[in-house]
C-alpha cells in the first residue's frame, strides 16, 4: 500500500509539472532570465525553455513546424504574418517598445550623432542583418534618414541577431548600433553612457513595437497562456522597463 501511495504521488507530481518552449527575439535575451524568475514565483512547476534568435529566423522555424507555443518578436510584422497564416491563435499585441543605441569599447564623441559613423577612425560598424533582425532594419532606416547610409555601408559587419551584433560591437568593430536593452545587462555595466554608449535619436527610425502571440502548437496547453498573460502583466512591465524598454 505504501509503495502504491508513492507511485501515485509521483504521478501527481508529474502531471502537475510541465515544460513549455518559447521563441524569443534576441534583444530580449538580457531580460528573459529575470522574467522567467518572476514567472516561476507563481508557477513553480512550469519549466520555461527559451530559443533565442533573429525574429525572421524564428518565424521561419515556426513555419517549418518548430515546437514553440509562444513567440516574443522584435517587431509586429512577423507575429502578424503568423496570425494571418493561422499559425498564431491570438492577434499580435505589443508587450514592449525597443530603442536603438550606439556602443563602442572606445571613448567616442557621441554628441555628433550619426555623423560620428563617417569618421575615418570608424572602420567597422556592427549592425544586425536587416533581413532577419528588426533592430537591424531600424538601424538601416536611421542611417538612411540621417543621409549617411551610402557613405558608411561599406563598413558594416553584420550580425545574424542583435545579441551577435552586441558581441561584434565589443570584439570586432569600432562601434555598433544595437538594442538599448542590452546595455542594462550586468555584463555590460563597465560601459558608461555618453562614454561608451548613447541613444540613437528616436526620430530617425520607426518605433520598434515588439509583438507577442500564442502559437497553434501550444493551443491545448494552459501553461503557455499563463506565460503569455504574465508577459502582458504589470509585473513583467516593471522588469522590461528596467531593461530600457518603453511600455
What does the model show?
This protein has 247 residues and is α/β, with parallel strands linked by helices. The protein is 37% helix and 21% strand. It has helices at residues 2-16, 29-42, 55-63, 77-84, 134-145, 149-152, 162-171, 222-231, 234-242; strands at residues 18-25, 46-53, 70-72, 93-98, 100-103, 125-128, 156-159, 175-179, 197-199, 208-214. Helix 2 (29-42) runs antiparallel to helix 9 (234-242). It is globular, with a radius of gyration of 20 Å. The chain starts with a helix and ends in a 5-residue tail after the last helix. Residues 1-16 have low confidence and may be disordered.
CATH architecture of the largest domain: 3-Layer(aba) Sandwich
How would you describe the shape?
globular
The tally of beta strands, per DSSP, is: 10
CATH class type of the largest domain: Alpha Beta
Mean pLDDT: 92
Helical residue percent band: 25-40%
Please give the radius of gyration in angstroms.
20 Å
**What is the assembly state of the chains in this entry?**
single chain
The helix count comes to 9
Order of helices and strands: HEHEHEHEEEHHEHEEEHH
Tell me the distance between the termini. Answer: 55 Å
- Please state how the strands of the largest beta sheet are arranged side by side: 2-1-3-10-4
- What do we call the CATH homologous superfamily of the largest domain? Periplasmic binding protein-like II
Give start-end ranges of low-pLDDT stretches: 1-16
Q: Briefly note the structural class of the backbone.
A: alpha/beta
